[in-house]
Amino acid sequence: MAPGTSPAPGYEILAHLARTGWLDLYDTWSEERQCRCVAKVVRPDRRHEERLRDRLLREGRWLRAFTHPHLVRAYEVVESPEPLVVLETLTGETLSHLIHRLRRRPAARDVALLGVQLCSAIHYLHGQGLLHLDLKPSNVVVDCGHAKVLDLSVARPPGMAPPGVGTFCYLSPEQARGGPLSAAADVWGIGVTLYEVATGHVPFDSGEGTTGGMTTGGMTTGGSVSDGDDWYPQLEGPAPSTASRRRLPHDLALTIDGCLSPDPAARPTDPELSAAFDATLRRLSGA
Predict the structure, then answer these.
(1) Which helix (H) or strand (E) holds 215?
(2) Is 134 considered catalytic here?
(3) CATH number for the domain including 21?
(4) How far is residue 16's CA from residue 26's CA, in Å, rounded to a whole number?
(5) Which helix or strand (DSSP H or E) is residue 122 part of?
(6) Where is this region: Disordered (predicted)?
(7) Does residue 83 sit in the same domain as residue 101?
(8) What is the reported pLDDT for 228?
(9) Which of its termini does the chain have fewer beta carbons within 10 Å around, N or C?
């Protein structure tokens, strides 16, 4: 859509922000709120795919209903003539941008604080009956130490799922394998995100030096759900320890490593993980 276009009554397109495998994102002016916001729409070449229209509307309804300080907010969901979700404009930058911009890794205290905030958002989602399933640095925006989680496009209730739902380098082993998924999959997502923030490296990649990968069934590249024949390094062995990549306080490194246990039952629960990060944060802050 060109600048000046009205995608829905009360909104005006200012600029095109980004294109994913199935979405266009626009910087948009809200006449009612007298502020900028972000409009998410299905790409014109994929509007014939009913499942994508439904996915966008479902995500928008969730984000409009949910109220949490560490989740992005949706202002409005428009169903016709074309599905559109209006989100708050976030200041700051994604963790993925931050990782590549900073010359030095974030301080241990900042890593622990981020852990507390991610646990808070994910615990809330789990209380709403949803798993996020795509936690990664590009889906977290941070501004002045305050994190917000984005993108519920592949979120679903706990239960059976096909192989490969999520982003290649960030999948838990059970997501890569397919089968029953539980809150432990998002504990893995918190751990893999903090691992990259703390060390500057993903614990698993495609073997080609990638630092991300395709989101299957999600919004990064569009993609379709894997047929189960793909190779996943997460299924080959455990992640290198955090301590092998960076010197961190022992308890913080062990907490991150615990999130990346190949066995979902061996990972900490949401409350246990939050308590561990909070204890580390208090110790590092001298509280």
Answers:
(1) strand 215-216
(2) yes
(3) 3.30.200.20
(4) 5
(5) helix 108-127
(6) 206-247
(7) no
(8) 44
(9) C
The single residue of 134, 151, 257, 270 carrying the catalytic annotation is 134
One-letter amino acid for residue 71 of the chain: L
Choosing from 88, 116, 143, the residue where a domain stops is: 88
* pLDDT at residue 287, as a whole number: 64
List the end-to-end C-alpha distance of the chain, in Å, as a whole number.
52
Decide if 3 contacts 14 (C-beta within 8 A): yes
* Alpha carbon distance 185, 187 (integer Å): 5
Which residue type occupies 58? R
pLDDT for 229 equals 54
Regions of the chain where pLDDT drops below 50? 209-213, 217-228
pTM for the predicted model, two decimal places? 0.90
Would you say the C-alpha torsion 205, 208, 211, 216 has a positive or negative sign? negative
Measure the CA–CA gap between 250 and 36, rounded to whole angstroms. 43
Confidence at residue 221, expressed as pLDDT on a 0 to 100 scale: 36
Domain boundary among 28, 53, 88: 88
Based on the number of CB atoms within 10 Å of its own CB, is 196 exposed (0-12), middle (13-18) or buried (19 or more)? buried
